[in-house]
Specification:
The complex is a heterodimer of chains A (299) and B (439). With 299 residues, chain A is α/β, with parallel strands linked by helices. Chain A is 34% helix and 14% strand. In chain A, α1 (7-25) crosses α2, α2 packs across α7 and α7 (190-200) packs antiparallel against α8 (263-272). Chain B has 439 residues and is of the alpha+beta class. The chains are: A alpha/beta (299), B alpha+beta (439).
Chain lengths: 299, 439
């Protein structure tokens, strides 16, 4: 083994192997592209895996209608620049009904705009494998997930009867209507992702970099304010130096106080972090846990 | 893989304190975040406990937290100044032995926990035996709950002797012992004040400094994952063979053989996104191009000319049965070996191995979940393999049943010599000849 072979090389080689297994074992795979840093890594790895050919599957973005403007702009520019095929799917019915976390509660809102929307899209396009950027270090139920994670015909996960997964022999056998979720970044940590983004110079949404932003302090999180309508009664918007460690929907994604304006700053900050990145995600903290959401079909 | 990365497995019986130990390692090495620790603390207080119960930090599923047992393998990540660690935390409960094998299949080292009061129990023997089956060459026996036996050196040494006697019957490995109290932290990360008679390294020191013997096989094995034929005009005649080097090294200009067809050719390029390479080694995911117009695809193996393995349709293997549906001889399965997928059946059941006594039980008519046995396997199409003890990547396989479930993990036993010879093709554009039927 050469002196320069690092843990990032090992993780990269493993992820590329997994992505190629998906392309080889499934008829109609799709890469779930959430525009965040993990997705950016995943797309980059897919480009590497199939070079000099194109990525042999489309990217799917499930748009809730509450994504940051910067995210959508980045999505369109980035996918165009690499020549990827992008599918955007929205649960138009729920959006037309005015689904909002403050109206429906976070769990129900996520259920309609994300989980139901995702299952709709998978069914509509007949995807038999969906590749996601989830990592095992993110959350304790994700720590239990296989790399090839089986879903029944209803898109549901049964954590108690997962297939044994030995070595790198991934069992992708499924029956009609069933599908697989595949997680090539399973063994990466947040730190690995940032170090890899720095090493590979992978473009990311500018929201990850700190600058002065309008925020309110709500439920223990710094929530961004884009328009006066985002402010609730009794709240006082303030300007703070903040950035986002993870990106989700605007009403449910908290920012962290930070002055990290470069990728080097972010790598240092991720290395010194004492609190998990999911802490800023409101969806993780209700009575409806990540495990419940995953069972229902959430990523 | 890299010196900086250690993948290890933790195994122990129910109530050996495994979750406590992992929680302790994570918290003391800052592998757990403050908000995760306080969430675990809240969960514990909600059910009337005090302080933090480390198990609530690692048991990710509701059923696990409710029943207080670990059901499935959890993977945990932490790093120190010296190393990055991936822990496969395997459940101790007997019915979940299959998950321990899952965790062990990617581990370099196994931590086997025992309760100092109980000593060596059936589960410890089973864990040791599975770790051995999966080819783990470093085993650290962690004697936990030393605080409950008054930190007795005599008791500790008694347990060490029991294990040494058991391991003497398996292939020699690097076997180490450490007395600890996971609850109080003695000899985990800190030495603590209570085990002054123990002069060896702490658990963390051991994990940080142990040099992993991967005894990597040196012969080139490159299972083809798929063929890259980009649908673009400028690359019309391009055929790239994608894969991850399972063992050995490959260089441009190297003569190789494509198996099982037995086609001789030469590596013309090693392609990566970051540019062509002159050579590549085990672990790397690359794309190879070969001289000539070959009929090669997913499931074929590119090997060096020296020590090229013979294609086989029959071999002996040890299997660990994982499915709740029993195995009877003659039942058909799908066999996955490297990137190859063939029809197979278990032709003969030679004996079952009692993991407790290592006794061979003959006259067995079926295998049940968690049974370990020596069998003969026949496949419809040939596979190109090595013995598991020589090559973990090309010596392991899984059997998939009709319900698409992974029913068994298999370890190919040393293979008898074969008179098979690859045929040198002067004109590689010819239709490949299928030669050398297996023995």
């Amino acid at each position: 083994m050469s002196e320069t072979w690092t843990h990032l090389d090992a993780l990269e080689a493993e992820s590329i192997y997994i992505l190629r297994e998906v392309a080889a074992q499934f008829r109609n795979p799709v890469l779930l592209y959430s525009i965040g840093k993990d997705s950016s890594c995943l797309v980059h790895l897919a480009r590497k895996a199939f070079y000099p050919g194109p990525i042999p599957f489309p990217l799917l973005h499930v748009d809730t209608g509450y994504k940051f403007k910067e995210m959508l702009q980045f999505r369109d520019e980035f996918t165009k620049s690499i020549g990827a095929r992008l599918i955007v799917h929205r649960n138009e019915e729920a959006i037309a009904e005015g689904a909002h976390p403050l109206k429906l509660g976070v769990a129900r809102c996520c259920g309609k705009l994300k989980t139901a929307a995702l299952l709709q899209a998978l069914e509509h396009y007949g995807f038999d494998a969906a590749i996601g950027g989830a990592r095992r270090d993110e959350e304790r139920s994700r720590a239990k997930e296989r790399v090839f994670s089986f879903r029944d015909a209803f898109g549901q996960w049964d954590p108690r009867s997962q297939r044994a997964e030995l070595w790198n022999l991934y069992n992708g056998e499924i029956a009609e209507g069933e599908s697989m979720r595949v997680f090539p970044l399973s063994n990466w940590t947040e730190r690995d992702v940032w170090q890899y983004i720095r090493r590979e110079k992978i473009p990311i949404v500018p929201l990850y970099y700190a600058r002065e932003r309008q925020v309110v302090f709500r439920g223990g999180n710094w929530i961004p304010i884009d328009s006066p309508a985002d402010v609730q009664k009794g709240e006082d918007p303030v300007t703070r130096w903040v950035r986002f460690r993870t990106l989700g929907c605007m009403p449910c994604t908290g920012a962290v106080l930070s002055t990290a304006t470069t990728i080097d700053d972010i790598v240092v900050e991720a290395g010194a972090a004492t609190r998990s990145e999911r802490e800023t995600r409101v969806i993780d903290h209700g009575a409806n846990t990540m495990e419940d959401k995953k069972r229902e079909g959430y990523f | 893989m890299s010196v900086g990365l250690l993948r290890f497995l933790t195994a122990g019986s129910v109530d050996d304190g495994k979750s406590t130990l992992i929680g302790r390692l994570l918290v003391d090495a800052r592998g757990a975040f403050e908000d995760q620790v306080s969430a675990a603390q809240r969960d514990n207080e909600r059910r009337g406990g005090k302080g933090i119960d480390f198990a609530l930090l690692t048991d990710g599923l509701k059923a696990e937290r409710e029943q207080g047992i670990t059901i499935d393998v959890a993977y945990r990540y932490f790093s120190t100044e010296k190393r990055k660690f991936i822990i496969a935390d395997a459940p101790g409960h007997e019915q979940y032995t299959r998950n321990m094998a899952t965790g062990a299949s990617t581990a370099d080292l196994a931590l086997i926990l025992v309760d100092a009061r109980q000593g060596l129990v059936t589960q410890s023997r089973r864990h040791a035996f599975i770790a051995h089956l999966l080819g783990i060459r470093h085993v650290v026996v962690v004697v936990n709950k030393m605080d409950l036996v008054s930190y007795s050196q005599e008791r500790y040494e008694e347990i060490c002797r029991e294990f040494q006697v058991f391991f003497r019957r398996l292939d020699p490995i690097d076997l180490r012992f450490i007395p600890i109290s996971a609850l109080l932290g003695d000899m985990v990360v800190q030495r603590g004040p209570n085990l002054a008679w123990y002069e060896g390294p702490t658990l963390m020191e051991t994990l940080e400094t142990i040099e992993v013997d991967r005894r990597e096989a040196s012969d080139l094995r490159f299972p083809i994952q798929s063929v890259n034929r980009p649908p673009t005009r400028e690359l019309t005649d391009f055929r790239g063979y994608m894969g991850r080097i399972a063992s050995g090294r490959v260089r441009v200009g190297q003569p190789v053989v494509v198996l099982p067809a037995g086609l001789h050719t030469e590596v013309t390029r090693i392609i990566t996104f970051d540019g062509d390479l002159p050579c590549a080694v085990a672990g790397q995911s690359v794309m190879l191009t070969l001289a000539g117009d070959l009929d090669a695809g997913r499931g074929d193996l590119i090997a060096g000319i020296e020590n090229a393995p013979a294609p086989r349709r029959a071999f002996q293997a040890t299997v660990c049965w994982m499915s709740p549906r029993p195995m009877k001889t003659g039942t058909k399965y799908l066999l996955r070996h490297t990137t190859r997928r063939v029809r197979a059946l278990v032709a003969e059941l030679h004996y079952r191995i009692d993991p407790n006594t290592l006794e061979k039980q003959t006259g067995v008519s079926e295998l049940r979940q968690n049974d370990i046995a020596r069998v003969s396997i026949k496949t419809l199409q040939p596979i190109v393999c090595d013995a598991y003890r020589d090559n973990r990547e090309t010596g392991g396989f899984i059997l998939i049943d009709e319900a698409n479930d992974t029913a068994a993990a298999g370890f190919i036993e040393p293979l008898p010599p074969s008179d098979w010879q690859p045929v040198v093709h002067e004109e590689v554009k010819d239709t490949p000849t299928w030669v050398g039927r297996d023995i």
